[in-house]
Amino acid sequence: QLIDAEPQNAWTSCFVFKFYLHFKLWSVVNLSISLHRWNISKESCPEISTSLVKSPTETELKIKEILQKIHQLIPPRPYTHVNNTTSAKHSTVTILNPRDTYCRGDQLDILLEARDHLGRRKEYGGDFLRARMSSPALKAGASGKVTDFNNGTYLVSFTLFWEGQVSLSLLLIHPSEGVSALWRARNQGYDKIIFKGKFVNGTSQVFTECGLTLNSSSELCTYLYGRDQEAFYCMKPQNIPCEALTHVTTMNREISYLSVKEKSLFHKSKVGVEIMKDLEQIDVFQCKSNTEKCQIGKMTPAPGGYTLQGRWITTFCDQIQLDANKINGCLKGKLIYLMGDSTLRQWIHYLPRVAKTLKFFDLHGTGPFKKHLLLDAERHTQIQWKKHSYPFITSHLYSVTEEGYIPQEIDQISGDKNTAIVITFGQHFRPFPIDIFISRAISVRKAIERLFLRSPDTKVIIKTENIREMHIETERFGDFHGYIQYLTLNDIFKDLNVGVIDAWDMTIAYGTNNVHPPNNVIEKQINMFLNYIC
């Protein structure tokens, strides 16, 4: 839906001012989510008073509830001096209830006491830690679970999934002071990314600034998406209609909300420092275990699986090893929708290796983010990938006519027992205040609920984010932002009858540290998907 917004348009200004007031009413959350870039002033809507503001909607109340949960996880920890921050070197680890021998399936617990650079015990938690166990000779790995007691101590738990010698790792990704700084910086503004829209009118074309919010009194084009009316804006070019927007591209803005002192916490040498480097390997011996077939709706524990000899082995269900004949039989008559970012585009490029009868059908799009379509006409199989809508960050021009606002895409699917949908989003949301991500996740959930009303047999699978490069721009794209989104997504979808491919857990286990993991990991993600639908 397109709206040509006039300068000081009364409806738009009043709507945004109401939205602003709603957020003011949520001040109990005490999060620095800045709306100053909306350029709102009371003069633009003088007839509005707080007494006339509508009560918060169900979605707004849900956003508030989730924000409160996250805020409790990340209390403010002002950075005063590096000596007061957590030190991997001075922190101590102790194996709880150590044994001479460990059995496959046992849980190994380790107590971490965080200390600062002067060796003093930390009195609060909040450090961003990543636990992993591995056996390189066996091509084996799994994530560990970290429990924060919020007093400077942590319980690090590993489930010993395989037999052999196991090495344990606990990385201090960021101290709590760095986490607090990143959280404040993330929610301080929408302007870390510059969006440019391409408007085409006959033979002429013009680029103007676009964004999730725009600080401008100029005439705007407002593009509203789905039932929840999520908005994207562009500066309206002179004498060109808003409908003439054809493509969008992005670039990073040279801006930071971190102080010079805070930035020193994210120097390459201080990110991902090993805490347990002096811990000896653990010997694990064989045990038996029984699991059931993988099914949609089954709770996914943490960790949900591990690698062994390069394979991904789930801990909560028994994966079927599918050969080419079984895969072709399973895909017969299937209509599969892949909705999300380039980490799902990797799937559609890899799938022809899994089912060799699948062939790409040229839809005459351009660029890497065009809609992709795989067909097997003989078996009546169709698989498509479509990128999700704003925010989508890339230096490539991409067509807005191929935008896939996921809730709207789901609403257009009739669904049946042979229809499957895979959804992922998150990487492109990391540079923006968290409310954007929460709102989108809630909208996606509501669309899935509507789908299940008309077609309860449709299979829906949520793929969580991959971890990415350790030393990428931390303030904009770092894994801390992804981890908060991972927790949020799990909370929003926890009681919905969907399958989960825990790519966060899987990519930690494989130790990929790449937003686009190698093909062997993509293969395991697809295999997990096939186990859900076959």
UniProtKB/TrEMBL annotation:
Top-rank taxon, per record: Eukaryota
Q: Which residues cross the membrane?
A: none
| Record-linked SUPFAM superfamilies | E set domains (SSF81296)
Specify the signal sequence span.
Answer: none
- Please provide an example of a Pfam family that matches this protein in its UniProt record: NXPE4_C
The cross-references to InterPro entries, in alphabetical order and at most eight, read: Ig-like_fold, Ig_E-set, NXPE4_C, NXPH/NXPE
NXPE C-terminal domain span: 312-534
The family database entries (PANTHER family) matched by this protein are listed as:
NXPE FAMILY MEMBER (PTHR16165), NXPE FAMILY MEMBER 1 (PTHR16165:SF3)
Give the family per the record: Belongs to the NXPE family.
Q: What is this protein called?
A: NXPE C-terminal domain-containing protein
